[in-house]
Write a structure and sequence with these properties.
Helix content: 25-40%
Largest sheet: 7 strands, mixed
Shape: globular
Order of helices and strands: HEHHHEEEHEHEEH
Radius of gyration: 17 Å
Distance between the termini: 54 Å
Strand content: 15-25%
Structural class: alpha+beta
Number of strands: 7
Number of helices: 7
Oligomer: single chain
Strand order of the largest sheet: 1-2-3-4-5-7-6
Length: 229
């Protein structure tokens, strides 16, 4: 039986055509989720969330190969550095031996996503293809920080209106993790999404990018300016 840890399964199944793929208080309504300002995750001082550069790709590939049941193609990893859009939507978490972002570190997790445009209205949304983190480093806010970094890039670069992913239907822990971060879970199950899992269905988790996200991004920018002044 596959593990139900939220970061042990891939969120995108390569055999499926691309289709619309620390506890916190849960907003009570969809409107509240638009305006909610979710707390920014605090990281250990020796962890940094950075864009995935060429020197990180092989390490990220090993992490994904260790944790996920799907083997991604060479193209999947090559696009991280060759495709500017995908590069802007890929982050890695690096654990530094010394408490400094300048110290050489170890890639312990990552997130990769793609940009999609809705045909009906032209609005842009972000699809999370994979989010993974090695088990010794979980429950430290690192996965949440990877997600937050992705959302910030989605706002500043593409003015995206939502972010979504697929989650194995039996992975209750992962579904709860996303819900605690403002995602809603579609009731309908996408049957046959995961070929290697039984049951093989997936649920779509989706979060609207709203005013709260813009406010947090603006506040973060102000904090950065104060630190530099």
């Amino acid at each position: 039986m596959p593990s139900k840890n939220p970061f042990l399964e891939n969120v995108e199944s390569p055999n499926v055509r691309n289709t619309a793929t620390g506890p916190q208080d849960k907003p009570s309504t969809e409107t509240n989720k638009v305006f909610a300002v979710f707390p920014s995750p605090s990281l250990p001082p020796n962890v940094s969330i950075v864009p995935c550069e060429s020197r990180h790709v092989s390490s990220l590939r090993r992490v994904i190969g260790t944790l996920l049941q799907v083997r991604y193609s060479d193209k999947f990893f090559g696009e991280i550095t060759s495709d500017p859009t995908i590069a802007s939507l890929t982050r890695v978490a690096v654990w530094h031996v010394a408490s400094s972002a300048q110290a050489e570190g170890q890639v312990i997790g990552g997130i990769r996503a793609r940009l999609e445009e809705k045909k009906e209205d032209g609005k842009k949304e972000i699809y999370i293809q994979t989010l993974c983190l090695l088990s010794p480093y979980r429950r430290l806010g690192i996965a949440a920080a990877l997600l937050q970094s992705l959302i910030e890039s989605a706002i500043t670069r593409y003015s995206a209106t939502s972010v979504y992913a697929h989650v194995w239907e039996e992975n209750d822990e992962a579904l709860e993790w996303y819900q605690n971060r403002g995602f809603t879970v579609d009731k309908q199950v996408v049957e046959g999404y995961y070929r290697k899992l039984k049951p093989d269905g997936a649920k779509v988790v989706r979060r609207r990018i709203g005013v709260g996200d813009y406010l947090r991004l603006a506040n973060g920018s102000n904090d950065d300016r104060k630190m530099r002044s």
